[in-house]
Specification:
The complex is a heterodimer of chains A (433) and B (441). Chain A has 433 residues and is α/β, with parallel strands linked by helices. In chain A, 27% of the residues lie in helices and 20% in strands. Chain B contains 17 helices and 19 strands. In chain B, helix 4 crosses helix 9. Classes of the chains: A alpha/beta (433), B alpha/beta (441). At the A-B interface, helix 11 of A face helix 8 of B.
């Protein structure tokens, strides 16, 4: 039987599923319920200095919905905890005492001076928490006050503050990164230089989810005005996966533990993060959409997959996909596929035809009886038909084996790979002769 | 004590007022906003969608559903009315399982089509409940067209002609407008006098006058009309019915019964037999059978001379009848009556279909009967003289042109009629477009 036991940055937990620092982890009551439900760990909602901050008293969340009003994206303008520091510390200590096998990491955000950090760290240590996470990611409100993503967007600050923290605590230090930057590798490198034990990412993406067409106010609207909030949920997963992979395959940070965050809703999402190099994962929006019970599916799904793949522990497959992430220029241009439509599965909606005809390569024909067929002479294998087809598995990409002729180009498929660096059209191509 | 389901003979008031109210309430109530949004989500927005092809009026169904899903049901209604001005009635009465919903790709995929009919009703009800008529007339052309009959074909034709700026004069035999929309659709499909509301709403376009109780039956009348009007459209329907050659006062026409129900102010006043037999296999037979049951008849049997698979009624309608406790007796043809008074029986002969033809075999069935409804087809009442007729119906081409220049026809009275509201609407509309082209030359 495989084991879900996890050790991340020296912190042990019975499974790699942690709740991210967010509303679900703001109180002992919630965190206890999460642990009862089976979550492996939590990152406690970010603590700050007293006097505690205040939140808006109107709506804090905005949303983007998919079909059947499923929550695809959630945005928030909530700040860090709005409870006194002492209350939170007392509850953290209590939770850790009641659930010693679970990971309890404390998220922190204090002003950008060493004294503030020197002040708060001993108080956190006193709770017996397992580690701290530095919130350099929050993109709204706190950033206006020189904290959160205002620090995370300047690599030098990240390095400086991380160093302060490392030199003032024995606890493992996780640096949480903001995606609101141009290249995630720079803040990750800075965290490592500052001595971070790990990074976690992504924090939320700066966003406006919608504008009210009657009041002309962004949503969520506070007395007719709105502000950019932090966007999360399934919609941001692709952004997060890419950033995790970028750090995992960067030579300078490839050995830096990563806690993967961003739109993880199912065991499949979580497993993708682990394969791209994350040591564990943090979840928030899915729990906020469905409650804590989803952790049962996360655990059972991952266990079943591990069992099928004959993996014994989480470390057996961590990062297995990293080496398959490469630069475009290294992709094999002699790999040729064509779309294939399974007529038995086709329900004849014609969406593949509409999108190919209107927006792509006119590579699908409607035959009599409303059957749809790919024209190999035109198909560039773009995958759009696969992506719009409502029936999973109905349209697939079939590889042309070496020796077969690509009817579009008239060329025989070469068994030897050829990438852009070797391509004759590339004036900068490396030649061997 | 009043009458009950078991009281012998043909009697009114077998049920309580509350039971009548429940039995004749809306069989398929409108969708709530939430239901409509959930259902609209299911539409795939197909290319060259099969549902559109299957709709005789060619409503752009994926577009109107997308308009519902983006919160603009009024725009959705406009999309529907652009093709089918009686989209409200069609949403209630169309056999969608044979048309749009039967063709829906989700029927193929999951055996659960998008509920197009109910979504259509959601959209059209939204606009009509606000009493908005979304069309304006073009500049007056000074032309005037005579329309004979105010059923779906006549109304659709009139509205489209009025939109193009022509004047219309409708001649209606009955004391009210609407034709079969008013009298021929089962009550539980069109509650709250929807047919009349729809007519009133349609007439808001302006330019349409009408004469009630005005019969145009013969060639002489028609010739006069062609002289006095710029064009004539015949949407007279099938005013007469086929009858069985069995002499009994228990026999009644199903269409009359259905009309009586539609116009009734109190269902308790309508006498219904304890034992009812409906002869026929089409939608009319189902409507008469189900409504007999709803009026409190104990035993209702639909007797059809061929097999179940040959019945004209859709599977959905047949199931509706069975669900309501109506019995089906197939391969049985009525031969005559025996006994008398409350002890009378209908004698039916067993049939076999051999080489497509009905052959009676040596086997008879006797059913106790208080009332027999004949639903064995309708026929043209209108005596059209020189108009070409085929199989008892006016011959028209795809534009609705008859054999006589200046006279167009559409709906059930024509050889292209299909005994469907939606088909009649399409033919009325298309004839109007052809008349407009003709008059614009």
């Amino acid at each position: 039987m495989p084991s879900l036991n996890s050790t991340f940055a020296g912190i042990k937990s019975p499974n790699p599923f942690w709740l991210a620092s967010a509303p679900p982890t703001d109180k002992e009551y919630n965190v206890s319920r999460a642990f009862e439900a089976g979550w492996g760990g939590v990152v406690w909602k970010t603590l700050g200095l007293d006097p505690h901050i205040v939140n808006v008293n109107g709506p804090r969340y905005g949303a983007v919905w998919g079909p059947d009003r499923s929550l695809m994206g959630l945005n928030n303008i909530e700040l860090i905890t709005d409870r006194p520091l002492g209350v939170n510390l007392k509850e953290i200590k209590s939770v850790k005492r009641n659930y010693p096998d679970r990971a309890v990491v404390v998220s922190l955000m204090v002003p950008c001076d060493e004294a503030s950090w020197q002040g708060i760290l001993p108080q956190v240590e006193e709770t017996n928490a397992d580690g701290v996470e530095l919130n350099f990611g929050c993109p709204h409100g706190m950033s206006e006050r020189g904290m959160g993503s205002a620090v995370g967007q300047v690599p030098d600050y990240i390095e400086m503050v991380t160093r302060w923290v490392k030199s003032n605590t024995r606890m493992p230090v996780i640096v949480k990164l903001t995606p609101n930057i141009t290249d995630i590798r720079y803040p990750a490198r800075a965290a490592k230089k500052g001595g971070a034990d790990a990074v976690s990412l992504i924090n939320t993406v700066s966003s406006i989810t919608s504008v009210n067409l009657d009041t002309f106010s962004p949503e969520p609207s506070i007395d007719g005005k709105g502000t950019h909030g932090g966007y999360c949920g399934p919609a941001v997963k692709p952004i997060a996966l890419n950033m995790v992979a970028e750090i995992a395959r960067d030579a300078e940070t490839s050995d830096l533990p990563i806690s993967g965050i961003g739109g993880i809703s199912t065991w499949r999402d979580a497993t993708e993060f682990l394969l791209l190099g994350a040591g564990n994962v943090q979840v928030c929006t899915a729990a906020m959409a469905y409650g804590f019970r989803i952790v049962s599916e996360l655990q059972s799904g991952l266990l079943e997959w591990m069992n099928d793949k004959r993996f014994e522990s989480v470390t057996d497959y961590r990062g297995l996909a990293v080496s398959n992430v490469t630069d475009w220029q290294n992709l094999n241009l002699n790999f040729v596929t064509k779309a294939r439509i399974d007529q038995d599965l086709c329900i004849k909606c014609g969406r593949c035809f509409a999108v190919c005809e209107d927006t792509s390569h006119q590579a699908i024909v409607i035959n009599s009886g409303r059957t749809f067929e790919v024209i190999d002479e035109e198909c560039v294998a773009c995958n759009l038909c696969v992506n719009v087809c409502p029936v999973e598995g109905c349209i697939t990409m079939e590889q042309l084996k070496p020796g077969m002729v690509d009817k579009r180009t008239g060329q025989t498929v070469d068994e030897n790979p050829l990438n852009w660096t070797q391509h004759p059209n590339n004036v900068l191509a490396c030649t061997t002769d | 004590m009043g009458n009950s389901v078991y009281s012998p003979g043909t009697l009114p008031a077998r049920l309580t007022p509350h039971e009548y109210e429940v039995n004749f309430s809306d069989i398929n109530p409108g969708l709530s906003l939430h239901e409509a949004m959930v259902e609209a989500d299911r539409c795939y927005f197909c290319y060259d969608a099969p549902c559109v092809t299957a709709c005789p009026t060619g409503i752009d169904i994926p577009l109107f559903i997308r308009q519902i899903s983006t919160g603009t049901p009024r725009a959705a209604a406009k999309t529907i009315f652009d093709s089918n001005i009686l989209g409200g009635m069609c949403a209630r009465s169309c056999p969608t399982e044979n048309l749009c919903e039967g063709a829906c790709v989700r029927e193929v995929a999951e055996s659960e089509p998008v509920e197009i009919g109910r979504l259509q009703r959601f959209a059209t009800d939204t606009l009509m409940d606000e009493n908005i008529h979304p069309y304006k007339r073009a500049h007056e052309t000074g032309k005037i067209i005579a329309v004979i009959g105010s059923g779906p074909a006549g109304l659709a034709c009139s509205h489209r002609l009025a939109m193009h700026g022509h004047n219309v004069e409708i001649f209606e035999e009955k004391p009210f407008l609407g034709g079969l929309n008013q009298t021929g659709i089962a009550t539980y499909k069109t509650v709250n006098d929807f047919a009349q509301q729809e007519v009133e709403w349609l007439l808001k376009i302006g330019g349409i006058k009408f004469q009630l109780n005005k019969t145009v039956k013969d060639l002489e009348d028609l010739h006069k009309l062609t002289q006095d009007y710029d064009a004539v459209f015949v949407g007279a329907g099938l005013g007469d019915v086929n009858r069985l050659n069995i002499g009994s006062d228990k026999f009644q026409e199903a269409v009359t019964f259905i009309e009586e129900l539609r116009l009734a102010s109190d269902y308790g006043n309508i006498p219904i037999g304890r034992n009812v037999v409906v002869i026929g296999g089409g939608m009319t037979a189902i409507d008469a059978g189900v409504q007999s049951k709803l009026l409190g008849s104990e035993n209702v049997t639909i007797a059809y001379r061929r097999s179940r698979s040959e019945m004209g009624a859709s599977e959905h309608e047949i199931n509706l009848a069975l669900k309501n406790g109506v019995k089906l007796l197939t391969n049985a043809v009525p031969l005559g009556m025996s006994g008398d008074g409350t002890d009378e029986k209908l004698i039916l002969g067993r049939t076999e279909i051999i080489g497509g033809k009905i052959q009676q075999i040596e086997d008879t069935i006797e059913l106790p009967v208080d009332q027999v409804f004949m639903a064995i087809g309708q026929k043209l009442e209108f005596g059209p003289g020189s108009l070409a007729i085929d199989a008892g119906k006016i011959v028209v081409d795809s534009h609705g042109r008859t054999s006589v220049p200046g006279i167009w026809a559409g709906g059930d009275c024509t050889n292209l009629g299909e005994d469907l509201t939606v088909t009649a609407v399409a033919q009325g509309r298309d004839a109007a477009e052809d008349i407009h082209r003709h008059l614009s030359k």
